[in-house]
Amino acid sequence: MTFSISEFIAEFSKPSNISALAGINRGLERETLRIKADGHLSNQGHNEALGSALTNPLITTDYSESLLEFITPVSQSIEQSIAQLKDIQKFTLSNIGGDHFWPMSMPCVVEKEDDIKIAQYGTSNIGKMKTVYRQGLKNRYGSMMQVISGIHFNFSFSDDFHQTVQTITGDERPLQDFVSDKYFALIRNYKRFGWLIPYLFGSSPALCPTFLQGREHNFEFKKAPTGCYYMEYATSLRMSDLGYTNSEQSTLNICYNNIDSYVASVQKAITLPSEKFASIGVKENGEYQQLNANILQIENELYAPIRPKRVAKSGQKPSEALAQGGVQYIEVRAMDVNPYVSTGISREQMYFMDVLLTYLYLKDSPQMSPQEFQVATENTDNVILSGRDPKLRLLDGSTLKSIPEWGQEIFGELVAIAKLLDEAYETNMYSKVVDQEKMKISQPELTPSGQILNDLLTKGRGIIGWSLIHAGKYQKELEQWQYQEFDEKYLQELATQSLADQSQIEAEDTVGFDEFLDNYFSR
Hints:
Blueprint: H1 5-12, H2 15-18, E1 25-35, E2 59-61, E3 67-71, H3 78-93, E4 100-102, H4 125-141, E5 151-156, H5 159-169, H6 175-193, H7 196-201, E6 206-207, E7 222-223, E8 229-230, H8 259-269, H9 275-278, E9 283-284, E10 287-288, E11 306-309, H10 318-325, E12 329-335, H11 347-362, H12 370-386, E13 394-396, E14 399-401, H13 403-425, H14 429-442, H15 448-458, H16 463-480, H17 488-508, H18 513-522
Antiparallel strand pairs: 1-3, 1-4, 1-5, 2-3, 5-12, 6-8, 7-8, 9-10, 11-12, 13-14
Helix pairs in contact: 1-13, 6-11, 6-12, 8-10, 11-13, 11-14, 13-14
């Protein structure tokens, strides 16, 4: 039985159901590039004081040694998540030899691609596999994409919420089956309405010219008086084809209609050979150049702005974890680093994501054909490059709509969801934030991308100078920050323990790397 948003709102307005909306779980993954004081890429490696990038649960590296990643534990408090992130960043800043954090998604000054060091994870088989995977990414797409930063927002509802929705709808399946289906319904709706994220939060309309060195592209950039390149109406160049994309993946047709079709299509994708990548070779003079010559080396290479996730056991593929246990949470990967806050994501953004994801879960979400999926992808791509263009029209079903037209329709329902969450959490923040974001729909100059471009074109600063001002401001803010959730002693002990954990993993390896890979891919 299909329920409308208005019917769900009526049900959750009942005193017996309203509390089920509370208990949302969130976790943050914030990437940030290490830079020198002049805005150039840092050439330092991962500092031992930060522990092991392989085993430290809070501080690691992403694609390169220069790209730090901070991970907060699961929390039901937005304020706690922000405080945890600040604690981790404060500790890191004091242990990276004078480097700073770059506050943008698109990279700083990179003189040449060879300056970008592939991330290292030690001598264990799993550590080598992580490094070889990144070597493969370098050989496939170039190193520059490895220093693009983003925010990953991990999100799940409480069991009480799932059970309440199941009761309201009269669904009698096992709870985990119901939960997995509802998360895939959310993901399909994210495909439909996810263009809102780059429009509202996209913060990369411009870039440093060094990013384009040696890269072929078809983008019609303009050059600011200060030298940086920009696109007049772009919102998120990070999410464009300049960022981490794989044209080979366009043939994969990953299916998001249910967990079985998704797992089957992903597992098929990691076995499909690529003539293009085969030309690289897997081994050269005994050294691995990539893990294999398939379209995807491993599942992580699948480009997706949102993913169904389950915490995997050591050595377990993500799709195996999903197949065996079902969807546990979803990971939104489409958010640019917010340069207006030291954490790269604001508490206001987190409040808004609660509202949006609750809306996407409750709104009817029919299964999608490949054609519908393609239309949704094109809508998002158009917003990424032209989101603030008043002439832009997006396709909603068979109807072309402007962003103000479609956005007002969506926000009409988001307002009602926000009121419910306000009542459940005994706050007014949800309604306040939705009202603020709604203003951007009719006033694109209020978006981060609009504000950044206005500064770059009217205040005589280039993207490097503009970013360094913010980097310096956040450096001081974090130096003055007082630890709240993790103290320095705890973070030091965690770093020390992670080094011991890495050594233990290395000591416990019983087979060579070649055999390890054969065993991994044979499953």
